[in-house]
Amino acid sequence: MSGVVLGLALSGSALAGVDGNATLTSDYVWRGSSQTMEDPTVQAGVKLSSESGWYASVWGSGVSFEPDAGARSEFDIVAGWSGALAPDWALDVNLTHYLYPSTDVDLDWTELNSTLTWKERYWVSVGVSDDALASGRTGTYAQLGARLPLSEQWRIEGAVGQYWLDSAYADDYLHGQLSAIWKVHGPWELRLTAHDTDRAAKRLFGSNAGSRVEFAIQTTF
User: Fold this and answer.
1) How far apart are CA 68 and CA 77, in angstroms?
2) Are the C-beta atoms of residues 215 and 191 closer than 8 Å to each other?
3) Which domains does the chain carry?
4) Which of 92, 84, 90 is nearest to 121 (CA)?
5) How far is it, in rounded angstroms, from Cα 92 to Cα 31?
6) In the prediction, which pLDDT does 170 show?
């Protein structure tokens, strides 16, 4: 589906740019839960964007789940549009397909996401899926976040998210994260993030949820 959207979106649009990113992290934490059993991994992505705001991207990471379904990698295939709604407001709407190759069971699923940003500092995001976490049931995720520049080299970012999964897993959960980011040189950054979840997340994901600290080296190109 994302491939069809990508073809329609970028056809006839002038290519504005190609951007990439790479990260070495001590733990891949997604919505409060470790996706690597608390082990380090490498992540990388590339994004193609058009002058009209349409874009497509692919992002990949190592993963490890329990029980083991054979998943060793995750690829997020994204097609969407982003642009300014007003001088201080920006909107990003995309369709994200989460792909896990060579697994014993089908873990792939798709989510519609939107993010509204004010002054590039505050945002609210909502994601909806009728197959949340490949469960075959609906799920809705919402997040409120903020970034606070302290200087040219330092900034703080924080977010709180709620995942409504009672249709899929008979439970909802809350998580939060707080990051300190240091711009070391050029596009290179060091990030230290503290994560925490409520007890419902621990019931759903066991030891992969709860309190944890993540350290990452990240760059763009």
Assistant:
1) 23
2) yes
3) 2-220 (2.40.160.40)
4) 90
5) 19
6) 84
Tokens of 129: 């899926």
Which H or E element spans position 156? strand 154-164
Candidates 127, 205, 213, 217; CA nearest to 173 is 205
Task: Look up residue 140 and give its two tokens.
Answer: 């809705």
169 vs 202: CA distance, rounded Å? 13
- pLDDT tens-digit readout, 13-34: 678 799 999 999 999 999 999 9
Rounded CA-CA distance 61/74 in Å is 5
CA separation for the pair 120, 148 (Å, rounded): 10
Tell me 200's DSSP state. H
For the chain, which ranges sit under pLDDT 50? 4-5, 8
CA 114 centroid distance within chain? 12
